[in-house]
Design brief:
alpha/beta, Elongation Factor Tu (Ef-tu), domain 3, SH3 type barrels, 3 domains, 7 helices, Rossmann fold, about 350 residues
């Protein structure tokens, strides 16, 4: 089978390529140029070193304009509207398994592979996205994938641990075997969100920090510097205080005492379900409200262009802009963008 492997310059995708070759596939590497100027050059150099070591062709796919339009600008817009976005989810759906998948298929490949830790199974012609036992499981970031995309994707390292991946890389002599993981958003230099947003022309005016009853407690320097659940950087109030909501319309940041950061539920828009059909009736499942969270049991009630989640137990720091991802056991059902907490 002809498989295009998305090489990022990191160890995960390098090992995925190595495993594909061991399985006898015809493999071609693709690295995406996403960031402005030459800021991708180090990763491209590493990907070239991996491709050379493995003896495969590497193609550089320039997607900078599309990445800026579909990922970077909406990311900035979300912050300007008081939400905390997760651009990796959009990038997976629109860029990695959108533009790069299309390019691979047009180039004559049968499948595309990446170094994601997730699983795909098929049952009676319906593809499922599955959570794996790996501590690095990344199924949360992939809930927007559709049936066509899943039918053309391979995840060679699906349930492996990071230690397994690095061990295989070292044994195979792969050049990036000890390269550190990138933990930040790839297009935000030095993880400096405020500086990046300012460079993109996104600035916010000073405004009021208010209490849960609307009383003015202090001043802030701009809503883009805050996220729901935040504790640090709020000032001294004689007791721990937490951000409970951000209102872009009146430029306020609401804070409250311990306990006020919990929500009984949420509403979400932009629903995306793996099966391709949105459920019509309420159903029980589990929902994860951020990547590092644990899935929580709840009742999910679909409505036009979204769904409501009522948790069995209140959840901490439900953040508009993040994704609510729905699980049935280890199977990802779908998800949506959180737009409002329910208190």
């Amino acid at each position: 089978m002809k498989v295009a492997i998305g090489l990022s310059g990191g160890v995960d995708s390098a090992v995925a390529a190595h495993l594909l070759l061991e399985d006898g596939h015809e493999v071609t590497g693709i690295i995406m140029r996403l960031k402005p100027g030459d800021s991708s050059s180090d990763d491209i150099a590493d990907a070239k070193a991996v491709a050379k070591h493995l003896g495969i062709e590497l193609k550089v796919l320039d997607l900078r304009d599309e990445f800026r339009e579909k990922i970077v600008l909406p990311f900035c817009g979300e912050y300007a509207n008081g939400r905390t976005p997760n651009p990796c989810i959009e990038c997976n759906a629109l860029i990695k398994f959108g533009a790069m998948l299309n390019y691979a298929l047009e180039s004559g490949c049968d499948r595309i592979a990446t170094g994601h830790y997730a699983g795909i199974t098929a049952d009676n012609g319906l593809y499922q996205l599955n959570k794996t036992d790996s501590p690095k499981d990344q199924s949360y970031f992939l809930y927007r994938l559709n049936q066509f995309q899943l039918s053309h994707i391979v995840f060679p390292i699906d349930s492996m641990t990071k230690q397994d991946t690095r061990r295989i890389a070292a044994q195979a002599g792969i050049p990036v075997a000890v390269k550190k993981d990138s933990l930040e958003i790839c297009f935000v230099p030095d993880n400096n969100y405020h500086g990046f947003l300012s460079s993109m022309g996104i600035t916010s005016e000073p405004g009021n920090i208010i209490g849960t009853n609307g009383e003015i407690l202090g001043k802030h320097n701009g809503i883009t510097g805050f996220t729901v659940g935040q504790r640090k950087g709020l000032g001294a109030y004689g007791k721990p205080m937490f951000v409970t909501s951000i209102n872009a319309t009146d430029n306020t940041v609401t804070i409250g005492e311990e306990g006020s950061q919990y929500s009984c539920g949420l509403t979400a828009d932009r629903p995306s379900f793996i099966s391709g059909s949105i459920p019509s009736e309420p159903f029980r499942a589990k929902v994860k409200i951020r990547y590092r969270a644990i899935e929580q049991p709840c009742l999910i009630t679909p409505f036009e262009n979204g769904f409501r989640v009522d948790f069995d137990e209140p959840q901490r720091s439900v953040s508009p802009g993040q994704s609510a991802v729905i699980y049935d056991g280890n199977t990802v059902i779908g998800g949506g963008r959180i737009i409002k907490q329910i208190n």
